[in-house]
């Protein structure tokens, strides 16, 4: 029986590519929304999920920060995927024929130069690969899609221009989600620990809460804040730090955090992806 991994998007999307890269041979389950992907994992229709959490150009994927803490799911891995977009049209189309281009809002935002160069009308769709499917179905030579090459293969489109993203460092970080926590032992390699916390509503609470990470020499690679339950005073933080909870310095920092927080919940501790070495690697 094949194992199944869920993702948000249609076949040919970058999330589909990430699934195939990390779990070749697994059956992929496309989902219409992030909520549907989370439900597929929670309900057992998929063993794992491949979910984008941030992009080097577009920033955080906001929906995930709201779904993840309350999902009951755990992060068991991460993957960094270089993002490349290509201008796709129906068979026989030429760039000079184009009048409009369709894609996900993030893809359009990451390919502004070619959109401006050819004076195209940018139209937002729900998914990159979905826009490729729609362009193929319309059969209109004036309409194009910005999508991965896999989408061109799946939907039978011509590649009118390759690698049209504005920046060559365009990269998306994905997290792998599971229903069950994976007690990843402390190995020799670099580790990442992700957790959420809420500060107490007292003066200097955040300063005091984060102080333990500085004094214990723990490198914090991500700190995102957002409101919860519609309350302006209730702020939750999503944090990535280098290290494993079994590390003495991180254990001390987390213990200090408890004194100044209403809730601290570890979402996962997992091996750092090799891409992080290009960013400077884990500090010793």
UniProtKB/TrEMBL annotation:
<protein>
    <recommendedName>
        <fullName>prephenate dehydratase</fullName>
        <ecNumber>4.2.1.51</ecNumber>
    </recommendedName>
</protein>
<dbReference type="InterPro" id="IPR001086">
    <property type="entry name" value="Preph_deHydtase"/>
</dbReference>
<keyword id="KW-0456">Lyase</keyword>
<keyword id="KW-0028">Amino-acid biosynthesis</keyword>
<feature type="domain" description="Prephenate dehydratase">
    <location>
        <begin position="4"/>
        <end position="179"/>
    </location>
</feature>
<dbReference type="GO" id="GO:0004664">
    <property type="term" value="F:prephenate dehydratase activity"/>
</dbReference>
<dbReference type="InterPro" id="IPR045865">
    <property type="entry name" value="ACT-like_dom_sf"/>
</dbReference>
<keyword id="KW-0057">Aromatic amino acid biosynthesis</keyword>
<dbReference type="InterPro" id="IPR002912">
    <property type="entry name" value="ACT_dom"/>
</dbReference>
<dbReference type="InterPro" id="IPR008242">
    <property type="entry name" value="Chor_mutase/pphenate_deHydtase"/>
</dbReference>
<comment type="pathway">
    <text>Amino-acid biosynthesis; L-phenylalanine biosynthesis; phenylpyruvate from prephenate: step 1/1.</text>
</comment>
<feature type="domain" description="ACT">
    <location>
        <begin position="194"/>
        <end position="271"/>
    </location>
</feature>
<dbReference type="InterPro" id="IPR018528">
    <property type="entry name" value="Preph_deHydtase_CS"/>
</dbReference>
<keyword id="KW-0584">Phenylalanine biosynthesis</keyword>
<dbReference type="Pfam" id="PF00800">
    <property type="entry name" value="PDT"/>
</dbReference>
């Amino acid at each position: 029986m094949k194992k199944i991994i869920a993702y948000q998007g249609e076949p040919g999307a970058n999330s589909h590519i990430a699934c195939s890269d990390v779990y070749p041979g697994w059956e992929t389950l496309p989902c219409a929304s992030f909520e549907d992907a989370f439900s597929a994992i929670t309900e057992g229709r998929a063993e794992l999920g491949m979910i984008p959490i941030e992009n080097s150009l577009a920033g955080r994927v906001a929906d995930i920060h709201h779904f993840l803490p309350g999902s009951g799911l755990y992060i068991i891995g991460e993957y960094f995927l270089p993002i490349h977009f290509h201008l796709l049209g129906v068979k026989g189309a030429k760039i000079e024929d184009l009048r409009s281009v369709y894609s996900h809002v993030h893809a359009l935002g990451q390919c502004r130069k070619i959109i401006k160069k050819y004076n195209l009308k940018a139209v937002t769709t729900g998914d990159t690969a979905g826009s490729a499917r729609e362009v193929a179905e319309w059969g209109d030579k004036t309409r194009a899609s910005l999508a991965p090459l896999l989408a061109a293969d799946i939907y039978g489109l011509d590649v009118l221009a390759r690698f049209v993203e504005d920046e060559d460092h365009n990269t998306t970080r994905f997290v792998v989600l599971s229903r069950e926590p994976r007690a990843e032992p402390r190995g020799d390699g670099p580790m990442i620990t992700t957790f959420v916390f809420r500060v107490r509503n007292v003066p200097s609470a955040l300063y005091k809460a984060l102080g333990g990470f500085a004094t214990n020499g723990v490198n914090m690679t991500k700190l995102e804040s957002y409101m919860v339950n519609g309350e302006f005073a209730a702020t939750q933080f999503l944090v990535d730090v280098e290290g494993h909870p079994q590390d003495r310095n991180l254990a001390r920092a987390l213990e200090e955090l408890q004194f100044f927080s209403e809730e601290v919940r570890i979402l996962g501790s997992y091996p750092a992806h090799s891409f992080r070495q290009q960013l400077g690697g884990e500090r010793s």
